[in-house]
Amino acid sequence: MTEPHWRPGQTVVERFLRPDGSVGQHHPLRVVADDGNVLLGWIPAGTPIIGSRLADGRRMHEVPLGERFRIPRIRVPDVWRGTSTLRRVADDEWSSVWWFFEPGGRFRDWYVNLEVPRGRTQAGPDRIDGILDVVVEPGGAWRWKDEDEAAEAVLAGRLTTAELAKLRAEGERVGELAERGAYPFDGTRTDFRPDPGWPVPELPGGLL
Predict the structure, then answer these.
(1) What is the pLDDT of residue 183?
(2) CATH-assigned architecture of domain 11-180
């Protein structure tokens, strides 16, 4: 079957799956470009999303590290906060690269969300969040983020040791690109501005 190919301006919904295949979060993205393998999508601050909370109502950062991956989660209506974000999601890569823009449009930094790719549906890309992440500063300096959470996720059975090893290798790969100032860390799209006619992406109904 031919893979979906999305048009600029179209809204797709990126799904973050749980390891058991159930859906944890939905993020609507406005398509900037798509070649059938690499999607560039835009999610401005204030976009409605479906996020997740622990079943007892708390957010992840509100509970001790040892409990975060052992308490069931539920999906809840939420909003994309803080930064407007351009995402590069490649079907065959264990990461997506997020350009973070502050209010007013100034580029801040890159956030490399390490992920397990799970292909595309007609509605959008499917990924599993890999917990471990990389932050890349303008100029190429980079650092790991959430190493403690990733280690705890393995202990709790949320990630396997093999998956974490592959995610870490992907982080090293993108870190090397950052150090060389190679794409996507070469300044490309740091001046990005969305089409002023684009409304905020909307979620389809019936997801909760």
Answers:
(1) 98
(2) Beta Barrel (2.40)
